[in-house]
Write a structure and sequence with these properties.
- By secondary structure, the protein is of the alpha+beta class.
- It has 3 domains: 2-117, DNA Polymerase III, Chain A, domain 2 (Roll); 130-255, DNA Polymerase III, subunit A, domain 2 (DNA Polymerase III, Chain A, domain 2, Roll); 260-375, Roll (DNA Polymerase III, Chain A, domain 2).
- 18% of the residues lie in helices and 42% in strands.
- It contains 6 helices and 26 strands.
- It has helices spanning 7-17, 72-80, 135-143, 200-217, 271-282, 332-341, and strands at 2-6, 32-37, 42-48, 52-59, 61-64, 67-71, 86-91, 97-101, 107-110, 112-114, 130-134, 160-166, 169-175, 179-186, 194-199, 224-230, 233-238, 241-246, 265-270, 291-297, 300-307, 311-318, 326-331, 346-351, 358-362, 369-375.
- The strands form 4 sheets. It has a 9-stranded antiparallel sheet with strand order 10-6-2-3-4-18-17-16-11. Strands 15-12-13-14-26-25-24-19 form an 8-stranded antiparallel sheet. Strands 5-1-7-8-9 form a 5-stranded antiparallel sheet.
- 37% of the residues are buried.
Length: 380
């Protein structure tokens, strides 16, 4: 195989593949990226860990065809050290791969394996219904909810995000059993309907992909992502790149039952001041639980923390509240995550009692998006 490709294009793709290639797998081939000539002027680059897969094609000057699998990290580091401009990649019969800067003496040779030994990647059904969504919308859905996915990979139903679309409504819901986040958006146009349970690693890679796409667009365009479900996999396609995720085969908790229908007390509070006070008081909270006491009184919300090792912390924030006195214990980090996901200047906090979950919402309703978070109380 002999091809010439742009360093800039190859570096961008290899950087994206790093989160998919599994360098710790007992199957060494999964730590590689596949380089494969496709047609007279295209080079395919792909990576997989058998659960996630990413592939795209680059424009290339093809001198001879073939394929090779090369260590993902090794190839990225060497391409990064090359001068800007075209790179010549050649593969010998024993799969040794040489990367040379065109017009420069700099070159690297890395050991590869024949491309035929690389696992085949799943392919979507071309007749399956698809959802087309703005990358900014998908990025917002993930950013508003991903932090409440459980990191316990033995609880698959919680170590994942529920992604649903029904007609023109799309929502993402996550929970770790202690808190829940739900974001719902109205997507114009007639769309398909389905339910996906996406594992945490897939959600994080998808978030990175969306964020990079939105950043590169710089407001000049509205890049769209095409989503297709094919059997046990979901496919996300944008700008010539395909990212696939093996979906979780489990039952997501009945989240509607967790969301309180109403709250006894409603508090309107400034988001940034609330976050600042919580962050400060949490410094003195118990390291293991992160628990703080939240007390409501006329026009005030007070925060208190106490730890045998670090002493006590206290702060208060002026809020719009004139109800009865109430004190509830919560994990400070859970509230901080929610406040960081909300963009409004004010939030509305719904509380019923010391044993009841709190509901946090933006203070103003958006025309095409609704968001809420539920935080379970804790004994302090």
């Amino acid at each position: 195989m002999q091809v010439v490709v742009s360093k800039k294009d190859l570096l961008k793709v290899l950087s994206r593949c790093q989160g998919v290639a599994d360098k710790k797998s007992t199957m060494p081939v999964l730590g590689n990226v596949l380089l494969e000539v496709q047609g007279p002027d295209r080079l395919r680059v792909a990576a997989t860990d058998l659960y996630l897969a990413m592939s795209t094609t680059l424009s290339a000057e093809v001198q001879s065809g073939g394929s090779v699998a090369v260590g993902a990290r090794d190839l990225l580091e060497r391409v990064r050290m090359m001068p800007e401009g075209p790179l010549a990649i050649s593969v010998s019969p024993n799969a040794a791969t040489t990367i040379r800067a065109v017009g420069s003496a700099r070159r690297f040779t890395v050991h590869g394996i024949p491309g035929e030994e690389f696992p085949s990647l799943p392919e979507p059904d071309p007749t399956a219904p698809a959802l087309t969504i703005d990358a900014r919308a998908l990025s917002r859905l993930i950013a508003s909810t991903y932090f409440s996915i459980s990191t316990d990979d033995t609880r698959l139903h919680l170590n994942s995000a529920l992604f649903e679309w029904d007609g023109d409504h799309v929502r993402m819901v996550t929970t770790d059993g202690h808190r829940l986040s739900k974001m719902e958006m109205l997507i114009g146009g007639k769309q398909a309907s389905t339910t996906l349970l996406i594992p945490l690693k897939g959600v994080l890679e998808l978030k990175r992909l969306c964020d990079e796409t939105v950043s590169e667009a710089r407001g000049e365009s509205n890049p769209e992502i095409r989503i297709v479900q094919g059997g046990p996999n979901a496919f996300f396609e944008l700008e010539g790149l395909r990212f696939s995720v093996k979906l979780v085969d489990a039952q997501f908790p009945p989240y509607q039952q967790v969301i309180p229908e109403r709250s006894e007390h409603s508090v309107r509070a400034p988001r940034l001041q609330l976050a600042d006070a919580l962050k400060a008081v949490s410094v003195a909270a118990n390291d293991r639980t992160g628990g703080i006491k939240l007390s409501l009184g006329a026009g005030k919300m007070r925060f208190e923390s106490e730890s045998p090792e670090s002493g006590e912390g206290f702060d208060e924030v002026a809020v719009d509240y004139d109800g009865a006195e109430i004190t509830v214990g919560f994990n400070a980090r859970y509230f901080l995550d929610v406040l960081g996901a909300i963009e409004d200047d004010e939030v509305v906090l719904g509380i019923s009692g010391e044993l009841d979950p709190a509901v946090v919402r933006p203070s103003t309703a958006s025309g095409n998006a609704t968001y809420l978070a539920v935080v379970m109380p804790m004994r302090i």
